Amino acid sequence: MRLNHAEINGVHIALPPSVGVVMTQVIDVYNPNPYDVAIRAMRGQVTIADKYTLPIDFRAPGDGLWLASGTTTTVRIPVTIPMPLALAIGHETVTSNVVPFRVIGKADVTATRTFQLEKDDYSVDAQGTFTRQQLQIALGGAVF
């Protein structure tokens, strides 16, 4: 697995009332096996700006996101950053063009569509950045 990049995709509104900024981690996953493999779930945490930690709890739809053998597949893992935290990150990174983040977690995978061999807790540890401008656009320019 290799972290390609992250995207700030806009604002998420949910019930009970909460507002947050959606950060999608774009991960390139190479499957070197001669058989297909599925990612069923991913859990862990993302640390933003070396100090703010948010949980990751991704569940793939159906029987998982299938990765074809011998190819690289792009997987998108969304994380919602609560609005107060997004504003704090914006304030603290005012002198930087990029915001660093690190993803640490475990993925549950299934090998072969036929035999459905499951392996849980495949380790993931990757680092990347997103631009402060992406955050600023998602927040509508608030307090920048």
Blueprint (SSEs and pairs):
Elements: E1 2-14, E2 18-30, E3 37-48, E4 52-59, E5 65-67, E6 72-82, H1 83-92, E7 98-111, E8 117-131, H2 132-138
Antiparallel strand pairs: 1-2, 2-6, 3-4, 3-5, 3-7, 7-8
Q: Describe it for me?
A:
The chain has about 140 residues and is mainly β. Helices cover about 10% and strands about 60% of the residues. Strands 3, 4, 5, 7 and 8 form a five-stranded antiparallel beta sheet that branches. It is elongated and about 50 Å long. The chain starts with a strand and ends in a 6-residue tail after the last helix.
Entry keywords:
2 helices; 144 residues; five-stranded antiparallel beta sheet; three-stranded antiparallel beta sheet; 8 strands; elongated; mainly beta
Quick overview of this protein structure:
The protein has 144 residues and is mainly beta.
Decide which structural class fits the backbone: mainly beta
| Strand tally | 8
Query: How much helix, percentage-wise, in residues?
Result: 10-25%
Name the overall outline.
Answer: elongated
Terminal Cα span: 34 Å
Largest sheet: 5 strands, antiparallel
Stretches where pLDDT falls below 50 for ≥5 residues? none
